[in-house]
Structure formats: C-alpha cells, structure tokens
Design goal:
By secondary structure, the chain is α+β, with helices and mostly antiparallel strands. Helix content is 26%, strand content 27%. It has a six-stranded mixed barrel with strand order 2-6-3-5-4-7.
Length: 275
C-alpha cells in the first residue's frame, strides 16, 4: 500500500468510527396520545468492544518487511472490502493489539497479511519472519454494568409468617455467655488479617510509537488533562519504540475512571497494563 493512501484511509476510518457513536436519541417504544403511561427507568450504559467474527475473521500468516510504515497500528489483506477496526493476535506469543484493517492493493508472494511496523512492534514480530496471526473485527456494544450481588435489592417477603418459637430465658443467657467466652478466646482479626494484594494492572497504555516526538506529544496531552503519564523507551530485536502509559491507579475502582478519561481524550484503543 502507498503511504499517501494509507494515511488517507486511516483518516477516513477514524472519522467513521467517531461518527458511529453519534445519533439521535428517542423513546424505544414510542407512544402517542391515549397510550398507557410507561414507567421510566434510568439505566447507565457503558460501551465495550466485542469481537464480531461474522463481519471479518482471518487466521493466516502475516509479515512485516522491516521497513517503517505510516498510519500507526494496521494490517492489510487482499480480501478486505472496507476498512475495519480489529483486534490482532500473535498466536505464537499470545500478544495482541487493537488497530485498523485495510485492503491490500497489491498481491505479493509470501504471507497473506501485510503488517505495519507499529503493529509488528506491539505483537513482538521480527522483520522478515512470518507469524501466525488472528484478525477479528470489533464492534461497540452498549451494556448495563453488572450489579454486584451485595448491591442487589432484597427479595420481597411473601407468604405467611413462620411460627415463632419461645426460648426460655435460661437458654438465652447461657448462649450469650458462650458467645462472649468464644470472642475473648479468639485472637483479634485486625492483627492477623492478610495485607491487601496490590493492583496488578495499575496503568493504562496510550499507545506504542515508532517516533519519540510523537510519544512525548501524547504524554504532554495526558498530563495537561491532569493525569500522570510516562514515556518508556524500549527495544525489541534491534527496533526501538516508545510506549506511553498513564497512571498509576491505586485500586480497581480508580482504574475504571482513569481508562474512561484517557479514552475521552481520543485514545479509544487504550487498555490496562501492569507497567
């Protein structure tokens, strides 16, 4: 694919994905005059990525030719009819990344899937060495967050009340005394409680950049929004790249809002990482 065409297709894909989240609201079960009143229930919906293999799914060999490529994280295949947002997995090492899928304009001998330099870095691929890849389309889905069992409303009490059994006062007194004795004999729970386990994925990865200046600009944007950001220089098989991560979050409860803020800044592919 030519660099100019890749840049144009990335811009078109990003615009389409942005517009797909916008639309007119409305009542799902419309009603006119004379319709029975319907109780309104307010439910907070959250968006998540779901795999859509019915839209596009491919498992085949992919290759990065070793040359730097424009457009960030993407793969290309000759069977593609329209650009898609996809999850790309390296079956050999288990690494994955979210990126774009384009049509490969020229057939070439060798592996079927063309891989960009940024995608290869994220997937741990070596220049000129094919890797088994899985490419599956992604779709956004709005779902209601799961309610923990402890927060669920108590079940209504139905049926006739049970029989109340009278307990002699002597039995109550002896039971209370036994409970007090057991409490005095037991060690204090606070002194033996195990320390809370540290959060394993306290950071949010913004992206992987092949140009250090681009990574620094992304980090400055995150810091300007009041969040912590770190640029980490790394290398793999002779290729240098820069990772930008935000955080850390002190707990899982803080990590959710951190990820939401990062995505609101335009980094829709951000995800939680350990460091």
């Amino acid at each position: 694919m030519t660099r100019a065409r890749i840049g144009w297709m990335v811009a078109v894909l990003a615009t389409g994905l942005g517009l797909s989240g916008c639309g007119e609201g409305g009542r799902p079960f419309g009603g006119g005059e004379g319709a029975a009143p319907v109780a309104e229930v307010s439910t907070r919906l959250v968006e998540r990525d779901v795999e859509a293999p019915d839209v596009f799914s491919l498992t085949d060999q992919g290759l990065w030719d070793g040359r730097p490529s424009l457009g960030g994280v993407w793969v290309a295949d000759a069977s593609v009819t329209s650009p898609e947002r996809v999850i790309i997995r390296n079956s050999g090492n288990g690494k994955f990344v979210i990126g774009a899928l384009f049509r490969r304009e020229r057939e070439a001998p060798g592996p079927r899937v063309q891989v960009s330099s940024d995608a290869a870095a994220a997937l741990g691929m070596l220049a000129g060495q094919p890797a088994a890849l899985s490419v599956i389309a992604l779709r956004r889905e709005e779902v209601a967050p799961e309610v923990p069992a402890a927060a669920a409303a108590p079940a209504p009490v139905t049926g006739a009340p049970g029989t109340i059994t009278a307990t002699p006062l002597g039995d109550v007194t002896s039971t209370a005394a036994a409970a007090i004795a057991a409490a005095e004999a037991a060690p204090a729970a606070a002194s033996t409680a195990a320390p809370a386990r540290a959060l394993t994925q306290a950071y949010v990865q913004i992206g992987i950049f092949s140009v250090e200046a681009n990574a620094n600009r992304a980090a400055e944007q995150i810091r300007a929004a009041g969040l912590g950001a770190v640029v980490k220089k790394e290398s793999s098989h002779g290729k240098t790249f820069w990772r930008v991560i935000a955080g850390p979050a002190a707990s899982a409860a803080e990590r959710g809002p951190l990820l939401a803020k990062v995505k609101a800044l335009g980094y829709a592919d951000a995800y939680a990482v350990s460091n």
